[in-house]
Amino acid sequence: MTAETTRRTFIKRAAAAGAIGPWILSGKVRGGNGRKLRHAAIGTARRGEQDLAYFITHPDIEIVALCDVDRNFLKAAAKRHPDARLYRDWRVMLEKEGDRIDSINATVPNHMHAPISMTALEMGKHVYG
Fold it and tell me: pLDDT by residue (tens digit) across 14-32?
């Protein structure tokens, strides 16, 4: 027998997942071969800047690539993450960085979440959207 998903059950499950999420990230986060998790950020302004600030607090995550269509936001993020490679097109970034990244965050306008996230997921990357 299959359980029907109602709005109420969906909200309960989503809240439970949100409560569990921080505990998952609080432990060791490692990429292959025991190295740090290599992360790429797509969208570096406002909320993207906040997301990056949160990610860098974890000792096992390193920011290796940044992408933003706005040169000014990308330039500002590059000052905070000088070792990261810079891109203005997320498709180019994923193509060039595909073998060098483990995860991405897509902090972009709503209509772009799906194409960016699905492309990264199809490449086997972890996604925070």
Answer: 666 554 455 444 445 666 6
